[in-house]
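User: hey, got a sec? need Helix-turn-helix transcriptional regulator folded
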Amino acid sequence: MAIILRLDRIMADRKISLTELSERVGISMANLSNLKTGKVRAIRFSTLDAICRELHCQPGDILEYDET
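Assistant: Yep! Here you go:
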C-alpha cells in the first residue's frame, strides 16, 4: 500500500506509551497497536482527530504517501 503510518515514530518523539495513548484517545490497545504497526486498511477521521489532538500533531505527521 502507498500510505504508510508513522504513528510509532510520533509516539517515540512524544515519549508516550501505547497504554497511555490508548487511555487518552479511548480506543483499545489492540486497535491502537494495529495502527502503530500499520496493519490496518482504514482509519476513521474521528480516531485520527483524537490521536492528533493528544499527540499535538497534524495528520500528515502520521500518514505518509510513498509513490514506489
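Quick note: Residues 33 and 39 are 8 Å apart (CA to CA). Let me know if you need anything else on Helix-turn-helix transcriptional regulator.
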